[in-house]
Amino acid sequence: MTPSQRVHLHRLVKSADPGFTCRGSTAPNTVVRPAIRAVLDRLEPAPAAVINRLGDVLVCTDAYRSVMEPTGLLDGGLPASFARYVFTDPRARTVYPDWDHVADKAVATLKQGPYRADPETSVLVDELTVTVGAEFTDRLERIPGLPEANGTRRLDHPEAGPLRLAFEVLDLSADDDQRLLVHLPADPATAAALDRLVGRSPGGLRALPG
User: What distance in Å separates the CA atoms of residue 197 and residue 46, rounded to the nearest whole number?
Assistant: First the structure.
């Protein structure tokens, strides 16, 4: 069977289970308010994006696009599913030297909030369960729904080489049900590489102190 046929069969079997219920829940919001888009515009030249609770990239700065397009994350356009990219695109394992940790946190993002009570999350989880297998399902069993709010992520960028990006994830209003993800260079070498990627003169992005 094709992957889509296997996912369909998996969901048919699960829905036939009397113990399975999928309670109604509000779907993840994909509409970004104009005011949030305006804030995002003012974050240039920082690579920044608005994401929902599925980890989907909804809108982003030009700088984010310049950094992430060469990795393959945005191949299908926006919105882009970070979870699908991490688990199904072989390039992700090269781009992220700490792939296991990144995969853990992608699952943590899926498990936050309503999780299985949200039909869209349930569909994505079923898809990855069937198409990825144990590397995904093992994480579902042991990873809590606690996404990272900040940290530093290493990228082996296909054009810029090794990067260290500090990131902050800022919650928007409860009605938005979205988060603002902002990346900043964690060292001078990354700052210089980002300036080249986004086409800015040197010094456009400064490395975080310390």
Answer: 11
Domain residue ranges of the chain, discontinuous segments joined by +: 3-16+30-198
Q: Extract the tokens encoding 146.
A: 């606690």
Does residue 45 have a cis peptide bond before it, meaning omega lies within 30 degrees of 0?
Answer: yes
* pTM score: 0.86
Burial category of 1 from C-beta neighbours within 10 Å (exposed 0-12, middle 13-18, buried 19 and up)? exposed
- Which of the 8 DSSP states describes residue 198? H
Cβ neighbours of 40 (radius 10 Å): 21
CA 107, CA 5: separation in Å to the nearest integer? 23
Measured distance CA(208)–CA(210) in Å, rounded: 6
Over residues 168-185, the pLDDT tens digits come to 999 999 889 899 999 999
Instruction: Report the C-alpha gap between 169 and 183 in whole angstroms.
Output: 9
DSSP 115: G
- The reply to whether CATH 3.30.450.180 applies to domain 3-16+30-198 is yes
* 50-95 pLDDT, tens digit each: 999 999 999 999 999 999 999 999 999 999 999 999 999 999 999 9
